[in-house]
Every structure is written in structure tokens, then in C-alpha cells.
Amino acid sequence: MSEKIVITTLAERPELFDPLAEFKGGWPVFMQQDPVGGALMGRVRELFPEHVLLATEGDELVAIGRSIPFVFPDEDRTELPTSGWDRALIWGAADHRKGRTPTVASALEISVRASHLGQGLSHTMLATMRANVRSMGLKTLYAPVRPNGKQDPRQPMAEYLEQVRDDGLPVDPWLRVHVKAGGKILRTAETSMVMAGSLAEWREWTGLPFDRTGEVIVPKALVPVHCDLDHNYAVYVEPNVWVRHDL
What we know:
Elements: E1 5-9, H1 17-22, H2 35-47, E2 52-57, E3 60-70, H3 84-98, E4 104-112, H4 121-135, E5 140-145, H5 157-161, H6 173-180, E6 184-198, H7 199-206, E7 214-216, E8 225-228, E9 233-246
Helix pairs in contact: 2-3
């Protein structure tokens, strides 16, 4: 990683509020259609600037990281939700609105500019996120991790999680980063994100024909997209993996 890269928070660098909105991470177009994310992800920089990490090299923003604080567990939140990423956003926004004092945080995103991939920056961003959350007095950082090394969309996520290398670490590179950083894999979040749209929308998002009912394999999707030609819609339900970092 370049020595010139400096990591701060948006609270410390409010002048980067607008450049942050323009930052292009590695999210495929169809992954940007989650309605919960569309409604709330942009609010994270407004409501929780101290939870937004910014890696800059000179004047260039080269990586970002976002987490969100919330209360967990409580009488209504006894288990980590299957609707992982979406629910973390909902809980965080709701607790902020109600003025509740958070007890944990969840990672939402670590994105590195393509020009800076392969330099260990994602490892550094995760370590910085852990330290940042700990500095706010929170003892646990959860993460609904997207195992983007999963190559077979038809393979169940629970089965993929069982695959480990000879050294016992996960075969998935991003899960491996979390485990090496001290994270513990807990369980799958089967309905972590949900993207639904008309067939015309899916054609626009992916460039695929979506011309038959059934499973459609979309590049970078972790599981198949379900296409219903008769009813003119397709839906993608993404599974993630809950990881816990004790800080």
C-alpha cells in the first residue's frame, strides 16, 4: 500500500461530502437497485459521518468504508436477522431517529478504486474500521459479508461456507480477510439484499435478454435471479454471511 494514502473520517473531512457521493466502487449496476439501500445508504454520510472512512491519496479519494451503529440485542432483536445488510441499515436509521444509544455497529461497505486493488488497502480499511468503531466505545462490529469469490451461483451459500483451505481459512478471499482480522463467521443472512424489477429494467441493468421463465445466471450475482416472463418481473435475493468482530 502506498505510504501516501491517508485514512480519515468524513467527520474530520466534511469537504469530501460531495466527492464521496460520486465515488464509484465495485458494485454491479443491478446491486445498486436495492430499495433499502437506495433510501438509506446515502443518509449514512449525513447521519453518521464519524462512521464513514475515507482513504485519500493526494486529492484523490481511493477507498471508502461505511459502518452504522445500532442497538443489539434487545427485547425485539434477539438474533442477527436473515435480512442482514438491509436490516442493519433499517435498525441504524430507526435508532438514530428515536435517539437510542447504540451498543454495536455493522459494516456496510468497503470499496476500493480499481486502480488501487491488490495493494492490501481493503485489509487496512477493515482494520481501521475496527479501530474506529472501538474508539466510539462499541465492543462489537458485525459485518454482513458479501463473499464475492463465490463462482457457482447454484451452490448454496451454506455449502460454500464449508469450503476451507488446507490452513483452515475460508476459500473466499473477502471472508478470509475478515477471519484474519479477528472476525468469527456466524451464519448466513439468506435475504440480506433484495433487488426486484421489471424485465425491461433487468435487461437495462445487465444487458441480458431475460426472455424465459426460470433461473437466470447474472455475472457477479451470488445466486441465480428468478425471472417470471408471464408476470413481467425478475427478483434477486442475495445471501450474505454474518461475521462478528469482538473489539
